[in-house]
Predict the structure.
Amino acid sequence: MYPTLDSMGVTSYKDIEKFTLRFENGFDVLKIYYRREKGSLLPKSKKFKFGRATKTVLTDGGQQTYREVQDPSLVVLRAVDELGEIVGKQHEDKLTREDLISEMEHLEKIMNNKLSEIKEKIAKL
């Protein structure tokens, strides 16, 4: 029914709650969130990274200038379409202020954890 998601190993379609797609370090990062009962041992989310195809295109026909353009993977585009069907178009492409603040707070936590880990390694040397 959803061949792209099947090929990615996603099988619990009825439990998919939402998904996010963002660009991070040259990769498209697709994260799928699931509805889980309290105490469930199943993961609440799955993350997939997709590389981008880079191609050189002619930007101005008169001056022979070229530019590198990155195209998203066809797999991620198909997966987003299938996920859109599953969640009933709940996913919005427009970012809200709250979404950006939430993502920034998440990144701050990750950075703080990584910095503490590095400081511990330095202290052990």
Notes: The chain has a mean pLDDT of 84. The radius of gyration is 19 Å.
